[in-house]
Specification:
Elements: E1 28-30, E2 55-57, E3 62-67, E4 76-81, E5 96-101, E6 105-109, E7 115-128, E8 134-142, H1 143-150, E9 155-156, E10 167-172, E11 177-192, E12 195-203, E13 217-220, E14 226-233, E15 246-248, E16 254-256, E17 261-265
Parallel strand pairs: 1-16, 3-9
Antiparallel strand pairs: 2-3, 2-6, 3-4, 4-8, 5-7, 6-7, 7-8, 10-11, 10-13, 11-12, 11-15, 12-17, 13-14, 14-17, 15-16
Length: 291
C-alpha cells in the first residue's frame, strides 16, 4: 500500500500511491510491466483539463469530494479515499465498516492546489480493505453548499469499468502533485500482506507514486471522471508482502512487478449510493463487500 504518512514524513505501511497490502502465494516470477490482461483498448479523444479542484488533503493521505451521476445538489457530499487511510487504522481482512461516527477534517483544494476550506465528516459511510481498498466519508455539508461557498464541484465517479490503455492522472491533494501515465492493464487479484483486492488497475511506470498519495483519485483524461482510487505499489520486488503487492492470475500464477503502482476501481461504488448519499449495500447492482 502507499504509506499513509504519520506526522510529517513517512509512517505506517503502504506504498507511495495509497495503501495496499500484499499476500503470500505460490511461485512468483519477475515480469516487466506491460504484459497485463487486456481489456478494451482506449480511444484517445479530446483531453479534459485535470487539476486539483475537488481534491482534498487528509492528515496522512489524499482524497477527493466525489458524486455519482445520480447525486443531487442537496445530498450530503462524500469524500473518497482508501480504507487504509481511516483514522482507526487498517481494517482487517474481511472487515467492513458502515456508518461509523467520525469528525475527521479535510483540506479542500482549488484548481491551483491552494487550500480554500476545511470540510468535516459526520461519519465514515463505508470503509473496507477487502476486495478493494476504499473509504467514503459523508460530510456535514452538501454538494450545493460546497459549490456555492467555494465554487468547487465534486468529481464524478464513472459508472463504467476503466479501459486498458486510457491516459490517466493520479491527483494527490496531500502532496499537491499530479502524476500522468496510462492504464497498463488489470490484475485479476492483487495480494499484499493479509489483504486481497480484485480486478485492480495497474499503471504504466511513469505514475511513480509515493507515500501520502494513498487515496488520490485516478482520473480518466478523456472524460475527467474518477475511474479508480490510488492505493499501492511494489517497492522492493518482494512477493506478496506489505508494501510489495503481487499479482495472481486465474490459474494462481504469481507475478511481481517491482516499482509498479496500482489503484482500485471505483465504478462498483456507483450502484451502492442511494438518495441522500446513503450507502445501501442491498441496492440492485451493488457488489461491495458487506459486513
Amino acid at each position: 500500500m502507499k504509506k499513509p504518512l504519520v506526522g510529517t514524513f513517512l509512517a505506517l505501511t503502504l506504498l507511495g500511491a495509497g495503501a495496499a497490502p500484499a499476500f503470500a502465494v505460490a511461485a512468483a516470477d519477475q515480469a516487466p510491466a506491460g504484459t497485463a490482461t487486456a481489456f478494451r483498448t482506449a480511444a484517445s479523444p479530446a483531453v479534459k483539463a485535470v487539476d486539483f479542484a475537488g481534491t482534498v488533503a487528509l492528515s496522512n493521505c489524499s482524497g477527493s469530494v466525489v458524486r455519482t451521476p445520480a447525486s443531487e445538489p442537496d445530498d450530503p457530499a462524500l469524500v473518497l479515499s482508501n480504507g487504509h487511510c481511516i483514522e482507526s487504522g487498517f481494517p482487517a481482512a474481511g472487515e467492513v465498516i458502515v456508518d461509523q461516527p467520525s469528525s475527521r477534517s479535510f483540506s479542500l483544494l482549488n484548481s491551483a492546489g491552494s487550500r480554500v476550506a476545511t470540510l468535516r465528516a459526520g461519519k465514515i459511510a463505508y470503509a473496507t480493505m477487502t476486495d478493494t481498498d476504499v473509504s467514503l466519508y459523508q460530510l456535514t455539508r452538501t454538494y450545493a453548499q460546497i459549490q456555492s461557498s467555494y465554487g468547487i464541484k465534486a468529481l464524478e465517479l464513472n459508472a463504467a469499468h476503466p479501459v486498458q490503455g486510457a491516459a490517466i492522472k493520479v491527483v494527490s491533494g496531500y502532496w499537491k502533485r499530479i502524476y500522468s501515465c496510462s492504464i497498463d492493464g488489470f490484475a485479476y487479484r492483487l495480494k499484499e500482506g493479509e489483504w486481497t483486492w480484485k480486478d485492480s488497475v495497474r499503471y504504466t511506470s511513469s505514475c511513480n507514486t509515493i507515500g501520502g498519495t494513498s487515496g488520490s483519485p485516478v482520473i480518466d483524461n478523456a472524460t475527467g471522471t474518477v475511474v479508480a482510487v490510488n492505493n499501492t505499489g511494489n517497492e522492493d520486488g518482494q512477493r506478496c508482502t506489505d508494501n510489495n503487492p503481487c499479482e495472481v492470475d486465474e490459474n494462481g500464477r504469481v507475478t511481481v512487478r517491482q516499482g509498479i503502482n496500482y489503484g482500485q476501481e471505483t465504478y462498483g461504488i456507483v450502484p451502492c449510493v442511494g438518495p441522500d448519499s446513503k450507502i445501501d449495500l442491498g441496492r440492485a447492482g451493488c457488489t461491495l463487500p458487506k459486513p
